[in-house]
TrEMBL record:
It comes from Streptomyces haneummycinicus. Keywords: ATP-binding, Ligase, Nucleotide-binding. InterPro entries: ATP-dep_AA_Ligase (IPR052032), ATP-grasp (IPR011761). Residues 10-193 form the ATP-grasp domain. This is ATP-grasp domain-containing protein. Pfam families: ATP-grasp_4 (PF13535). GO terms for molecular function: ATP binding; ligase activity; metal ion binding. The keyword Transcription does not apply. It comes from the Bacteria. The keyword ATP-binding applies.
Length: 247
């Protein structure tokens, strides 16, 4: 399971040593925050000290709980970042689709938008999916899990950034539902209760099975819609354009 080189330490001297071993530029991350809080690119020891100091000045998380003082350092990976949305049940992992993202706010990494399905070549999409599947199987997340696995498509091949055993945030689940008709929240409830997920694809834009006449009218506005089953490989929104959502 290929990922970035990384180190986790609490002491400043250990962080400096690890940063030299990994090599600049690198990414500084808290180990227990959310939504990209305090995630920063750093290019030298001065920036590293500033990023670690900023984290130390935030002793509680967004829920008011005391934070772990450890800091995660990661190799900075090149290339675009995507996520693979999956549903796992009874040992089978179904790929629902691949989402790409827009990131801004350097040196922070602020997600400013998402697009589903990702505008990728078939080869890149397959590489992202296979990497995510390998990561989920390596971690044993093949039953009762709706997962959101983040992948960097680097010049050296795909690399795993995060494996999140929960549905995607930032309204990605809504993008998926609007494009494919698959309700990942409902699938999450199903697999959590040990039931087979009810994630068969419907006509895009339908929250429930529509009437035949409604679908005939709707389909005239769509170039392509989802295939049946739990894991459409490619789905497109109205007029063949991918759907975009804000972060």
């Amino acid at each position: 399971m290929a990922g970035p080189r990384f180190a986790v330490h609490e002491e400043a001297a250990e962080l400096v040593r690890a940063a030299r071993e990994i090599g600049y530029p690198l990414v500084v991350k808290p180990v227990d925050l959310c939504a990209g809080m305090f995630v920063r690119r750093v290019d030298d020891e001065e920036q590293l000290a500033a990023a670690v100091g900023a984290l130390a000045g935030f002793p509680v998380n967004a829920r008011g709980q005391r934070r772990v003082p450890a800091v995660l350092l990661e190799e900075l990976l090149d290339g675009p970042e995507v996520s693979v949305e999956t549903v796992s049940h009874a040992g089978a992992v179904h790929v629902i689709g691949v989402t790409d993202k827009s990131v801004g706010g350097a040196p922070a990494f602020i997600e400013t938008g998402h697009m589903f399905p990702a505008a990728l070549s078939a080869a890149d999409a397959d590489a992202a999916e296979q990497t995510a599947l390998g990561a989920l199987k390596a971690l044993g997340l093949t039953d009762g899990v709706v997962a959101h696995t983040e992948i960097k498509l680097t010049s050296a091949g795909p690399r795993v950034v995060e494996v999140n055993p929960r549905p995607a945030g930032n309204r990605i689940t809504e993008l998926v539902r609007h494009v494919t008709g698959i309700d990942l929240a409902a699938a999450f409830v199903d697999v959590s209760l040990g039931r087979a997920p009810t994630c068969g694809a419907r006509t895009p834009g339908c929250a429930a099975p529509p009437s035949a006449s409604w679908c005939r009218r709707r389909r005239a506005r769509w170039r392509r819609w989802t295939v049946s089953g739990c894991g459409p490989r490619r789905t497109y929104s109205r007029r063949g354009s991918p759907s975009r959502g804000g972060g």
